[in-house]
User: Fold this.
Amino acid sequence: MNLIEFKNVDFSYYLDDENEQSESNEIKVLENFSLVIEKGSFTAILGHNGSGKSTIAKLTNGILFAKNGEVIVDGQVAREDDSIFDIRKKVGMVFQNPDNQIVSSIVEEDVAFGVENLGIPSDECRRRVDEALKTVGMYEYRTKAPSKLSGGQKQRVAVAGIIAMKPQCIVLDEPTAMLDPSGRREVIDTVKNLNREEGITIVLITHYMDEAVQADRVVVVDGGKIKMDDTPQNVFARVDEVKALGLDVPQSTELIYRLGLKSKETILNADECVEFLKSKLEER
Assistant:
């Protein structure tokens, strides 16, 4: 069943005041763009800077609105009126910099902020906050100041603030770009668990190919158009095509490619790489 659907969507930015829109100052980002995200899926969207991937993320919950075409969330068309608040309850956003989403000096108060704004009774709010913090592994930090946390911990608090609002989908726009490898691992592990154990639909915008392989589906966008849409195995098997779009492939895939070795299945991570190289050595 589809949760999010882009139907022939056009979107442009304008260099000057939007009250003076014209073709001369228009930058077209999406043209006749169509995409379907299924309920319960985990989709990674890839593309170089300016490809349109962050615009796609912002169109999913009404931060931006389509110029032409429709963005439909759970059967409801995203429009620039009060109905957009229903969509924002269903689709939560997590951004690149967790500091931009943290609004309180205490972790549990920060997670409660969005829930309270929904008018949820205090007892239910308390339950949701505790449950969300336990889900992302941050319950023991509930009385701490966010400023004392690492980048990965802050981002997990930001995710907790979204899941406490009980969305059907979480869209993460490069959530690990400002984190070290440990922090990136924490956030991606949390996202995977939310998808597989809680059934939350995940849309991950990322520059890191080793994160994209965690998804069930990879969509590659270039110039506002979909160039590839398949499993990580099938997308990253097309190394030359991926590179031609200005993207990298996972490090393990790159190593096997440079060694000129052939494998039945695309090598996507370190464990697979070790096993494959071991088997090649044993053959000799």
In short: The chain has a mean pLDDT of 91. The CA atoms of residues 147 and 200 lie 28 Å apart.
